[in-house]
Write a structure and sequence with these properties.
- The protein has 17 helices and 23 strands.
- It is an alpha+beta fold.
- It has 2 domains: 9-240, Aminohydrolase, N-terminal nucleophile (Ntn) domain (Glutamine Phosphoribosylpyrophosphate, subunit 1, domain 1, 4-Layer Sandwich); 264-433, Rossmann fold.
- α9 crosses α16 (425-431).
- It is elongated, with a radius of gyration of 22 Å.
- Bound molecules: adenosine monophosphate (AMP).
Length: 450
């Protein structure tokens, strides 16, 4: 069975605003980096839920005609990023269903770790699934709950799932937001006009003119009802385990995630990297865009000039999702190109946020050497990625993670660098000001929480 994970997605919910669907649309636009495979919006007009979703970028899926059909004062939206192979429109979100209490729509960022178990039990019990998404489990759990109110059914259902989830639910007249007990994935609450917004990243708030109020707490359920302030119910909270990879790679630098600005965190990583892994060179180059803030930090801390020596073509998608190695190689070349006259004869330090399979680094180093670089020193602003993520980041299995299978020295040889060094976990934690062990670092340490 093909797994459909709601990895690295973006979710948004707008409550009590006359332009609810348009605000969801703009929010999804701001969070497009969290998923480019599919996009969707559901609106609620008090009587009916309307849903439009399709494959592709937000700007391709929606136009004025479609948005005007999404009537109502509330809406929820989603952009999807998932592993290659799931091209079914059925696996796009919001997931919408009719059930005994009426209509329901759900968007989900994260990944249930007990999804197969719950699904199999539901199937045994007669449930008929339409998609491969773990989110569909929630629909069935809610539909089968014996509680009378949707709020209690949601509490029932999330009590039966485990893993990482930031969820927004919409009935015909109410909206609900829930975050898992560890707060793996981000979810923030803001005020927009007389209404409210919840979104994966605060960069969405900036675009739609919303004011940040606070993060939805790990283990918190928020209920939005007309003419009432949002009601908060604490379900079950654990010691937070926020995803460190949001700060390392995934979130947008202008977002505040888990209470801290992403750009600043990445810059700190570069400063720590310069302190721990110095090397003599003529310039510091970022791998755009991910490596830019940490390369600025590295440059400032080392005194070695920062140069934008590698240009990125912004008009092609991310390289990571291509299924074959051949395609990935080609796409890196299409995407990145060095400035020859700047690099020729120079010793360069190249900064990237992570090495996953090693394809990108190897390709970039070849490009730089072909452009005449005298030495290429690779510096990575996170520890070696040794373990897959089960909580919502799309990392390959262990056999495809280069750091799970090779020493740093062997990786250095494989990517054909003159030297290679990573940031260690303690320095990473210092960079994000974590003193109380509030981050999930399983991808770097193998310390899984669930
Ligand atoms: P690789 O070529 O497999 O080593 O991929 C490393 C590159 O992919 C780096 O430039 C990272 O910025 C980027 N990257 C790391 N993790 C992910 C992810 N989960 N999704 C997409 N890109 C990623």
């Amino acid at each position: 069975m093909e797994r459909a994970l709601n990895e690295e997605c973006a979710v948004v919910g707008i409550f009590n605003h006359k332009e609810a669907s348009r605000l969801s649309y703009f929010s999804l636009h701001a969070m497009q980096h969290r998923g480019q495979e599919a996009a969707g919006i559901s609106s609620g007009d008090g009587v009916k839920i309307h849903t439009i979703k399709d494959r592709g970028l937000v700007s391709r899926v929606f136009d004025e005609g479609k948005l005007s059909k999404l009537e109502g004062h509330m809406s929820i939206g989603h952009t999807r990023y998932s592993t290659a192979g799931n091209d079914s429109i059925l696996d796009a979100q919001p997931v919408h269903a009719n059930y005994d209490l009426g209509q329901l729509s759900i968007v989900h960022n994260g990944n249930f770790t007990n999804a197969a178990e719950v699904r199999n039990a539901l199937i045994k019990d007669g449930a008929i699934f339409q998609t491969f998404m773990d989110t569909e489990n929630l629909i069935h759990l809610i539909a089968r709950s014996d509680k009378l109110k949707l709020k209690d059914r949601i509490i029932d259902a999330v009590g039966k799932v485990e893993g990482a989830y930031s969820l927004v639910f919409q009935s015909r007249s109410k909206m609900f937001a829930v975050r898992d007990p560890y707060g793996f994935r981000p979810l923030s609450l803001g005020r927009v006009g007389d209404g409210y917004v919840v979104a994966s990243e605060t960069c969405a708030f900036d675009l739609i003119g919303a004011t940040f109020m606070r993060d939805v707490l790990p283990g918190e359920l928020l209920i939005f009802e007309k003419d009432k302030a949002p009601q908060s119910i604490m379900l079950h909270a654990e010691q937070p385990k926020h995803c460190i990879f949001e700060h390392v790679y995934f979130a947008r630098p202008d977002s505040d995630v888990f209470g801290q600005n992403v750009y600043q965190m990445r810059k700190n990583m570069g400063i720590e990297l310069a302190k721990a892994q110095p090397v003599e060179a003529d310039m510091v180059l970022p791998v755009p865009d991910g490596g830019i803030p940490s390369a600025i930090g590295y440059s400032q801390a080392s005194g070695i000039p920062f140069e934008m020596g590698i240009m990125r073509n912004h008009y092609i998608g991310r390289t990571f999702i291509e299924p074959t190695q051949e395609m990935r190689d080609l796409k890196v070349k299409m995407k990145l190109s060095p400035i020859k006259s700047l690099i020729e004869g120079k010793r360069v330090i190249v900064i990237d946020d992570s090495i996953v399979r090693g394809t990108t680094s190897r390709r970039i180093i070849r490009l730089l050497k072909n452009a005449g670089a005298a030495e290429v020193h690779m510096r990575i602003s996170s520890p070696p990625t040794t373990d897959p993520c089960y909580y919502g980041v799309d990392t390959p299995d262990k056999e495809n993670l280069i750091a799970a299978n090779m020493s740093v020295e062997d990786i250095c040889n494989f990517i054909e660098a003159d030297s290679l060094a990573y940031l260690d976990n303690d320095a990473l934690m210092r960079s994000v000001n974590s003193t109380e062990d509030t981050y999930c670092t399983a991808c770097f340490t193998g310390n899984y929480i669930l």
